Please model this.
Amino acid sequence: MTARTASSFFVTIILAVLVTVAYGWIAGILTWWVVLLIAASLVAALYLLPHRLRREMGRQTLIATPYFWLFLLFLVPFGIVLKISLSDIALAIPPYTPTLKDGFWTMLAGLDLENYAFIGAGAVFAAFVGLVALIGMFRVVYPRARRAMMGDARSGLFDSAAGALTALAVAVVNVALLVAVLSFLFPALAGFVDIPDFLYFAAYLSSLKIAVISTFLTLLIGYPIAYAMARSAEHWRPTLLMLVILPFWTSFLIRVYAWIGILSKEGYLNQMLMSAGIIGEPLTILNTNIAVYIGIVYTYLPFMVLPIYAALEKMDDSLIEAAEDLGCSALSAFWLVTAPLSKPGIIAGCFLVFIPVLGEFVIPSLLGGSNTVMIGKVLWEEFFNNRDWPVASAVAVILLLILIIPIVLFQRNQQEADQ
Amino acid sequence: MKNIQLMSGIATLALVAGSAMAEEVRVYNWSDYIDEELLTQFEEETGIDLIYDVFDSNELLETKMLSGSSGYDVVVPSATFLQRQISAGAFQPLDLDQLPNHGNLWGAVQERTDQYDPDGAYSVNYMWGTTGIGFNIGQVTEILGEDAPFDSWDLVFDPANMEKLAECGVYFLDAPTEMIPAALNYIGEDPDSHDPDVIAKAEDVFAAVRPYIQKFHSSEYINALANGDICVAVGWSGDVFLAQLRAAEAENGHEIDYAIPSQGAQMWFDQMAIPADAPNPDAAHAFINFMLDAENSAAATNYVWYASGNEAAQEFIDQEILDYPAVYPDAATLENLFTTTPYDARVQRVVTRLWTTIKSGQ
Amino acid sequence: MAQPRPDTVFAPWDEPDAKPLIQFKNVTKRFGDFTAIDDLTLDIYAQEFFALLGPSGCGKTTLMRMLGGFETPTEGTILLDGVDIGPIPPNERPVNMMFQSYALFPHLTVWDNIAFGLKRSDMPKDQIGDRVEKMLKLTQLGKFAKRKPHQISGGQRQRVALARSLAKAPKLLLLDEPLGALDKKLRNETQFELMDIQETTGTTFVIVTHDQEEAMTVASRVAVMTEGKLAQVATPDQIYEAPNSTYVADFIGDVNLIEGTVEVQAKGAKPTDVSIKWSPTETPIDATSDTPPPAASTVTFAIRPEKVAISNERPEAANVMEGKILDIAYLGNISTYHVEVAPGLIIKAQATNNRRISRRNLTWEDHVYLSWTDTAGVVLTE
Model:
C-alpha cells in the first residue's frame, strides 16, 4: 500500500468518524464529553502515524475540504429530501413511509414517483426540458445553422445537419410551449398533459412571474441608484456604498416587519397620504401583491445596485465624451455605450435578485395576501399545514431543478465577465 | 411573547454553556395564552427552570411532534390534533399519581374530550372555547347599519355583507379544520362530515366571499382588530377578547367584541400532553399539576378570557367572565355548539387541498 | 528638425489676408478660484498641424477640451470658420477628438469603433462600409477589423483611435497626448505616420503634448503655454532658435542662461550689437539683437550648448571663455561638457564625437576654452 492510498484510506475513515460523531451529537445520542473524547483520541491516533503519511494526509484533507462541505451541506440534505419525496405520507414519527427502520432494501422497494405525479411534475419537467432546448437552440444550434446557411467556407456536414436539426428543434419546442401555455390558460386542458393538481404548476408559474416582475422593478430602481453612485464625486462613493449596505446590519425579518407598520391600513404611509390630502380613504396595500413587490424590491435592491455600480464605476468617463464627440446625444451615448458596458453588472444583479426571489417565502407570507401564490409559500404550506413531507420534498426537488437554469446561466455570465 | 422567546433563548444558551443539570421543563403553548406572571410563580414554587415557547397553529405543532425529538416536555395541541398524534404514538400516558390536582377537572368538559382521548389517558384540558366572530362594533355598524347580523354567520358567509365589509378588512383563520366545519354548519350540512363530497360543498361558501377576505391567518387578527386595520375576523373567542383588551389599553377608540353565531359554532379543547420522548417527564407532570391548581387555572382564565376546563377554578374566576355567554355559553347556546373529529389521511388531503384552493383561488 | 517642407512654404500665419480656421478671442476659463486659461487670444489656420506644448497644469488640455465642446469658456469667444461655437454641443461640432486613453469602446470591434461616428451621421449605410475600409487602409488595420480593442496591441489601438476620429472627416482633429501611452521607439515611428496622415487628409490637427521633441517633430507651429497664457507661438525652428523668453528657451531643449547687464555701446558698434556684463572681472559677452535693450537693463543671454565650441587652445572668436571641465556626459553621437568658467557659473558645450574615444583629447579637470560667435545666442529681456 503506497502512502497515497493509505492516506486516502485514513482520511476517509476520519471524515466518516467525524460525520458519525457530529450526527450522534446533534441527535443527542452522544454527550459532549464523549464527542470530546473521540476527537482527542482521533488527534492522538494521528500522531501515531508516520510523519510522511501525515503530510500526505494533510495535503489530501486540504483538497478534500471543499468537496467535503459540498457533500455535507448540499448533497446529503438533497439526498434526504429526494428520498422523502419518493416516500408516502403516514401518520407516524417521522410522518412518512418507508423509513430505514423497515430495512434498507424494503425502504428502496417502497419508493415511488407518486408525489411527482401528484404535483404535476411531468408538466413542469416538460416546460423545463422545453426551456433548456430553447436555450440550447439559440446558443448552439442556431449560430451553427446560420453559418451553414450563410455559406461560410467552414460549413461542413455537421453544420448542414445542424440546419435541419434547428428546424426540428423549433418545431418540437414550439409544440411543447404551445401545450404548456394553452394548458396554463385553459385549466380544462390540463388533463391532456396529465396534471392531477394544477396548483403546483400554477405556483411555479406565479413565482416565475413575481420573480421576473420584481427583478425588472428592482433593475428599474436600482440602475439609477448605481448610476448616480458611480457618477458622484469620488470622495462620496465609499459613503454611498456604505449607505446601500447599511440595511444588512439589521435583521431582515425586522425590516420586513417594519413594512407591515408602514403599509397597513392605519400605517404610516396611509396616515401621511391622508394628512397630505392626497387620498381620502386609506389604501389597502398590505396583504396584496403590491406589498410583496415593495418588500422584494426593498430587500433585494442592494443585490442589484452593487454589481451594476461595480460595472459602472470602472467605466472610463472619456468613453461617454468620445461617444458625444462622435455625434451621440447624451441619451444615445447612454444607450450605445453606458448600457452595453454595464450589461455584465445588470445580468449579475438580475440573477442575484431573480434566483432567491423565485424561492422566496418570508416576504410573501408576511406582506402578501392569501392569493399571493409563490412556490416557497406552497412548500411551507405543504410541509407545515398539510404536514405532507413527501409532497413538500417533491415540490422542493422540482424547485431546485428549475433554479438550475438561471444558476447555470449566471455562472456562464460570471465566467464571460472574468475573461 | 417576544420577550419570553428571547428569555427562553438566553436560558437555552446559558444551559448549553453552563451544562448545569438543574431540572428544567420546556413548554410549548399557543401564543398569547397565559398570564406570564404564572411562569415566574411556577419557577419560584417548584425550583424548576421553565422554558416557554409559543406557536400559533396546530399544524406547526404537529410537524414538530411528528418529526420527533422536539425537546418539549409539555405541549398543548387542540383535541382533534391530539387524537391524530396519539395514534401516531407521539405522547406518553399521564401518571395520575403525579397529578394530585387532577380531580379539579370539569366532568362536563371531560365528557366531550373523551371522544378524542378516551379516559383522558394522555391529556388534560387546559382551556376550551369556541370559534366565532370578532368584530369592530363601530366600523361594522357604520358599514352595515345598526341591524348588522353580529350574532350570525351571515356576517361573514353572506357575500352581500362581505362585499361591504371588504372595505374595512376581514381576516379568516388559516385553519381548515375550524373553517370548513363552520361553513358546512352554515349550509346545514353535518359539520363533522368526513365525506369528501359533503366537504366539497364548503368550497362554494368560501368562493362566494373569497374576493372580500383580505387574509387567512391564525394570530395576526388579534393586533389587526385591535389597531383597526380590520373590522371583522373569524377567530377564537379568547383571542378576540385579547384584541378587545389591547384596543382598550391603546385607547384608540376601537371597540371590539365577540359573538358565538346563533347557527352554532365549533367547540374546541386545548389539551396539555407530554410527548413520548419528553426529556423530563417528571417536571412535565409538575407543570401540568401546577396549571391544574384551581387558583392558577383561574388566573390564566382571568387573563386570557378563555373558559377553563377546571371546575374548581370557577370559584376564583372573575364573575364578569363566568357571566359572559361568549366565554361560558348558556345552556341554550351550548346546545348549538358542535365538536369535530379528526380526518383520516385521505380525507385530510382532500380538506387541506380544498383549503389551498379556497385560499389561493387555485 | 525633421520638418518636411512642401514645395511652397506653408505659412498662412504670415499672410495678412489669410482667414484663420479657429480664433480664440480673449478666452478665459475658470474652475472655481482657479484660472485655467487667462485672457487668451490665438489664431489657428486650416491645414495646420498645431501643437500645444507645456507642462501639466498649464491649461493646454483645457484649451483643447473647449475646442471639443467639453468645456465652455467663462469669458471670451471661440470662432470656428467665423462661427461662435460656444453654444454648440460636442456632438454637433465638425470637430473630432482622439483621447489620451483612446476611449475605444471595449464592447465593439475595431470595425464598429471606426463606424461608430459614421452611423450617427446622416451618411447613407452603403457608404459607411467604404469609408470604414478606407480608414482601415489608411491606418493599416485591415487585418484587425473583427477584433475587439483588448485583443490588439497598444500601437494598434492608437491607430484605431485615430481612424475613428478621422472617419467623419472633421474640419478639425484634436489629439490629446496621442502618443503618450506608446514606448519611445513606437512613438517616433508613429509621429511620422501622424504627419503623413495629416498631409494626406489635409485635416487641421491640434495636438496637445508635454513632450517638446514630439511637438517640434510633428507641428507646423508650436504654442508654448504656461499658467493659462501663451508664452510663444511660432514655428519649431523659431521657438528653438529665437525663443522670446527665458521660459521658452529653458523649456525647449538644453540651454545656457547667463544673466548680466547691458553695457553702453562702444563707439563704432553696429546698432544691433549688445555687450553684456555678466561678471565684474571677466570680459563682457558680445551678442546681437534686432531690438537692443537699453543700456544698464538686466538681460539674460541664452545660448544652446551645441553652439558653444570647446578646445584646448584659445581660438579666435567673438566670445571666448576659459574654464575647467567638471563633468562629461557621453551620449554616443555627442558629448556634453560641463565647464566651470567662473565660480558658480557652469556652461554646457556640446561636441560631436566624430573621432574614436581614444583620440579625444578632452578629459576631466582639463583646462579648456569655450567660444561662440556674436550671433550664436539670443538676448532675452523677459
Observations:
- Chain B is about 45% helix and 15% strand.
- Chain B has a mean pLDDT of 88.
